[in-house]
Design a protein that fits this description.
The complex is a heterodimer of chains A (286) and B (239). With 286 residues, chain A is an all-alpha fold. Chain A contains 11 helices and 2 strands; from the N terminus they run H-H-H-H-E-E-H-H-H-H-H-H-H. Chain A has one domain. Helix content of chain A is 75%, strand content 3%. Chain B has one domain: P-loop containing nucleotide triphosphate hydrolases (Rossmann fold), CATH 3.40.50.300. The chains are: A mainly alpha (286), B alpha/beta (239). At the A-B interface, helix 6 and helix 7 of A face helix 2 and helix 3 of B.
Chain lengths: 286, 239
């Protein structure tokens, strides 16, 4: 029964990892930008959520109404102001600039919020659970998983059924020809980053309700996001969800064997999958 | 917008364009009259594609070197030029591989210019595209891809349509199908520039012709009156 429990908890945890990864996957897909600051942007979102709940006295989920548009705006400005300048044939400048951004965000958060671990207060949502036979399922992990499915379904819809998604794919295919269609790639990239950080904001709030956080944890979230994206296959959003679930299950099963093995077993499963399928489980065929 | 009918829709003056570090056009002058079909011929490397890329904004130039309806556009980005009503059918078709046939056409219309061209109208012009509307653009034959590339440009309802080497690499029967469709496009009052290596095709659909040679205009004349000898000299630069 322990094992079944571990698998269920791991699966639900995978929803959170998929949310970490979705924004990463989206911007890589649209503009081939590997965002090293992604984990720190998640932490930034969590702190913005914390401030919103404290200042306005609202529930963390209500704070989404503020944090999601705020993060989207930050994403647009960040892309148009800085990241667009780094994009070109060389992949090194965006890596270096986002690495620098990561350091800047971490230190700014440290300056403003100190290094003390923080947590958002979500009341009964944190401990509520549903009985399932002999097991019980936490409402928050379940909610996180459902939100992950809805968000990825929503991104999938935007990508393949809307004019904006068409523009994303066209710019990703061929920047010059997309310009000829009247699409300003700098603006389209800005919109892609805005969408990515809107998703990141959702992941951030759910993270901040689930566990405590401090300014230094971004790097760890970045790794989970990367691993989920790579396991699922680059450019495949549903694959990213599967990647998140595999990572989550590997971690909870590892923890079940020995509590010290949680993170290690996740990384080992990631390495095994990359060794066997270097392009991930569901690579996008071109 | 008041429009002087004697004013050319496009005027290129003293254009010096570079392709990387290499200068491709030298002090080039040309103009396109409202509603005319103009052919630009020339050998490989004569600068035809560079001229097209300069006009549509993919290569940036001095503002006054390219004028559209009296407005300086040489410095504008391609998306800004497109919104003014200039569309390019690029050499080598260059469809978006991630998009279906229909999506490739729709993205051409995304710019939101009003006019006679719509998805339905493009499907009437090239019926095969309606049959294959949902397949990825990469699944089409070369000729069908060229139809999509032309349809995609038409979808923006341009006032000036530039077509770069639309017969390149296609079987002659396909080229005929595509060229047979051109009068229907030109008759809508659109100004059209046809860049071609196939001189006979280019002359058959155009009223006026420029020949480029090594980045300069080597011949300008009426398509119906220029002689073969004149063209040979202008094309190859030999007596």
């Amino acid at each position: 029964m322990d094992w079944i429990n571990a698998i269920i908890q791991g699966t639900l945890l995978g929803g959170l990892y998929a949310l970490f990864a979705a924004g990463l996957s989206l911007i890589f897909g649209v503009m081939r930008l590997v965002n090293i600051a992604h984990g720190d942007l998640i932490v930034l979102g969590a702190y913005l959520g914390l401030s919103t709940t404290l200042v306005l006295g609202v529930h963390p989920l209500t704070a989404l109404l503020i944090v999601v548009p705020l993060m989207a705006a930050i994403g647009y400005v960040l892309q148009r102001g800085i990241l667009n300048q780094t994009l070109g044939t060389d992949i090194l400048p965006p890596l270096l600039v986002t690495f620098g951004l990561s350091v800047i965000i971490q230190n700014s958060l440290l300056e403003v919020y100190t290094a003390d671990p923080q947590k958002m207060d979500a009341g009964v949502l944190e401990t509520a659970s549903l009985p399932l036979g002999d097991l019980s399922i936490g409402v928050l992990p379940l909610l996180t998983f459902v939100i992950a499915i809805v968000v990825i379904g929503g991104l999938q819809f935007i990508f393949y059924k809307t004019a904006l998604g068409r523009a994303f794919r066209a710019v990703s295919d061929n920047q010059d020809i997309a310009q000829l269609m009247g699409l300003n790639r700098r603006h389209i990239y800005g919109l892609a980053m805005a969408l990515a950080l809107a998703v990141t904001a959702i992941a951030a709030i759910l993270l901040g309700i689930r566990t405590s956080f401090d300014p230094s944890i971004g790097g760890g979230r970045l790794i989970f996001g990367f691993e989920a994206v790579i396991i699922g296959g680059l450019g495949n959003l549903w694959g990213t969800l599967v990647g998140g679930v595999i990572l989550g299950v590997a971690q909870t099963i590892g923890a079940n064997i020995n509590p010290g093995w949680q993170l290690l077993s996740g990384h080992i499963v990631f390495l095994i999958i990359v060794a066997i399928r270097p392009n991930g489980l569901f690579p996008k065929v071109n | 917008m008041p429009n002087n009918s004697s004013e050319p829709i496009l005027k290129v003056s003293g254009l010096n364009s570079h392709y990387g570090d290499f200068q491709a056009l030298y002090d080039l002058d040309m103009s396109v009259e409202e509603g005319e079909a103009l052919a630009i011929i020339g050998a490989n490397g004569a600068g035809k594609s560079t001229l097209m890329r300069s006009v549509c904004g993919l290569i940036s130039n001095d503002a006054a070197q390219v004028q559209y309806r009296g407005q300086n556009i040489g410095h504008l980005r391609a998306d800004q030029v497109a919104k003014l009503g200039i569309a390019l059918v690029p050499e080598g078709r260059q469809l978006f591989p991630s998009l279906s046939v229909e999506e490739n056409l729709l993205i051409g219309g995304q710019i939101g210019r009003e006019g006679v061209w719509s998805l339905q109208r493009v499907f009437e012009l090239f019926p095969i595209l309606e049959e294959r509307r949902n397949v990825p653009s990469t699944a089409l034959s070369g000729g069908q891809q060229q139809m999509v590339a032309i349809g995609r440009a038409l979808m923006s309802n341009p006032d000036l349509l530039l077509m770069d080497e639309i017969s390149l690499g296609l079987a002659s029967v396909i080229i005929k199908t595509i060229y047979d469709a051109l009068p229907g496009i030109i008759d809508e009052g659109m100004s059209v520039v046809i860049v071609e290596q196939d001189i006979t095709k280019a002359l058959s659909v155009s009223s006026r012709v420029y020949c480029l040679q090594e980045g300069r205009v080597s011949l300008e004349g009426q398509s119906s009156t220029v002689s073969r000898d004149e063209i040979s000299r202008a094309y190859f630069g030999v007596e």
